Amino acid sequence: MSNIRNFSIIAHIDHGKSTLADRLIQYTGLVSDRQFRDQILDTMDIERERGITIKSQSVTLPYRGKAGEDYELNLIDTPGHVDFSYEVSRALASCEGVLLLVDASQGVEAQTVANLYAAMEHDLTIIPVINKIDLPSADIERAREQIETELGLDSDQAILCSAKEGLGIQELLEAIVERIPPPRGSRDLPLSALIFDAHYDPFRGTVVSCRVFDGALRPGDVIRFMYNDATYKVEEVGLFRIVREPRREIAAGAVGYLIAGIKTIGDVRVGDTVTLDAHPAPTPLPGFKEVKPVVFSSIYPISSDDYQSLSDALEKYKLNDASLVYQKDSSAALGQGFRCGFLGLLHLEIVQERLEREFDQAIIMTVPSVQYEFQLKDGSTLMVDNPTYYPDPMEIERGFEPFIKASILIPERYMGAVMKLCMERRGTESKFHYPTPGRIEMTLEMPLAEVVFDFYDRLKTVTQGYGSFDYELSGYRESDLVKLDILVNTEKVDALSLIVHRLRAREWGVQVCDRLKEEIPRHQFKIAIQGAIGGKIISRSTISPFRKDVTAKCYGGDISRKRKLLEKQKKGKARMKVVGAVTIPQGAFVAVLKTKQE
Description:
This protein is of the alpha+beta class. It is about 25% helix and about 35% strand.
C-alpha cells in the first residue's frame, strides 16, 4: 500500500485537466504512441464533439520513481463544468490528494475556488499547478499571487507545467509521489469498498467502479451491498488501464472495478458500501450527499408504446449519472412520462442527447422550469417545480424565485450587446473586472428562470462564440410570478403551461401562440390559440379554417339564395367547432422550445 497514490485533477472549465491527464498517461507509457489519441479518457462521442469532460474517468498509471521504486498512481480525471460538480465530489471521496490546476493566462476563476473548498472538505493534500506556461499571454507571477491571495495556498509549492508541450511532467509525478500520502487502511480488516460509479454492459451486466478502503476482493467472493442487502458472487475484479485489466485481487487502497453478473440495476447505488457476506464490515462508509436538482423538465416518449423502454433506459442511465433525479408523471396531451430534475442546463442537454444516442429513445421534453417558492396566506410554504401544482392565486401571499450569480467573460468589444441581453433577462447589480487587457469579466445577479431558456445560445451568438458563462446559485428573492396557460380551442394544454414573471408573461404568450399557429394544421373550423393568466386573455392567434365555396353553383339571380347557403355553412362550422377536437402534432411541443432565431 505504501506504493499506491490516489489523486484527482480539479480546475475551472478549460484549464487543461484532460490534456494533463493525456500527458501523464503518455509519460508513464500506459499507451503506445500508435494507439494514443487526444483526450483519451473522454470516451463518449458527445464529450469528444463538445470538447468537454462529462464523466469522471479513472485510470491506473505505472510509474518508476527516481529512487527506482515502482508506484501505482490512480488518477481520476474530473469535469470542470459547474453542472457536473457532483461528479467531482464523488471523485474526491476516492482520493488522498488533488492537483489544483490554474491557467497561467486566465488566473484563478470561479470553479477553481469552488473545487478547492470541496477538496478541503475531504481533507485532501492540495498541490497547486500552474498550467499553460507556454502561452504568449501567460503571466506566471500574477497566477502565483492569486494562488496566495485568493486560494490561501503556498505559491512556492506550485509546480509550473505545460500539458500541451509536456513541460514539467517529471516534476509533477515526483511531487505526487512525495507529497500525496499513501492510502490508509488495512488488508486484514473486513472488506469495505465505496461505489463511486457504475455503468451497464449489455454482455456482463453492471460494471461497478469502487475504491477499496479495507480488506481485499477476489473472484469467487460472495459480496453484499449494505444499502439493500443484495448478495452476488464476484466473477471478475481488476484495474482500469484505459481498458479493463483483470487481476487476481484488488486490495485496500486500490481503485478498480468488479463484475458480479448484476442484472437487477436497482440494486447498485452510487455511494453504497460493498462488503463480504461472510465477514461483513461493522459500519458502512460515509456515502455522498444527496443532490439537489435546480432545473426541472418532463420527458415523454414520442410514441406511448415506448413508455416501458424509456423507463428501462432511465434506470440504466441513472447507474452512470447518479445526479439525475426522476419520478413518474403524466400529461393529458402527452400521456405517461417522467418528471426529471437536473443540476443545470448543460446537464439537461447531455441527458437528452445521451438518452437518444446510447439508448435509442425518441423523446419529447417539456419547457424547462425551476423550483419556485410560494408563501401562502395560511402561513405555510409551498415549493413548486411543475406548473400543474401552481397554487390558487387567491391564497398566495408572496412568490420567490431562485437567483444566480453569473460570471460572463467576454472580449471588450461585445460589452454593449451583452449588457443589452442581460438587461432583457432582468440582470441586476453588474460589476466589471478586467482580468487581462481587452477582456472583461462581468458578474451580475439574474433569475435562474431567465437563463434556463436559450440564454447561453444568445450569449454565444452576440459574442460570435467568444463569450464564456458560468454561474452559481445565490438564493431566493421575492418576485411577481403568474401562471401562463395556453388554450387551444378553449381547452387548456397542460404540457405548455409555465410559471413566468408578470412582466415577461405577454411576450411569452405571444411567442407561444405564434409558434403553435405555424405548427397546428388547419381544420374544418376556426381554431383560437390563446395565452391566459387566470381568466384574462393576454395573447391570441387564429388558425383560419378550410372553406368550401358553397356558392359556386349560384351564378346570377337573387342574392338571398347565396346568403342562405352561406348561413347554412356557418351553422355547420359552429356545430363542428363545439364537437371537433384539435389534434396537436408532437412537433408543436418541440417547436415551442425553439427560439425566434432558430
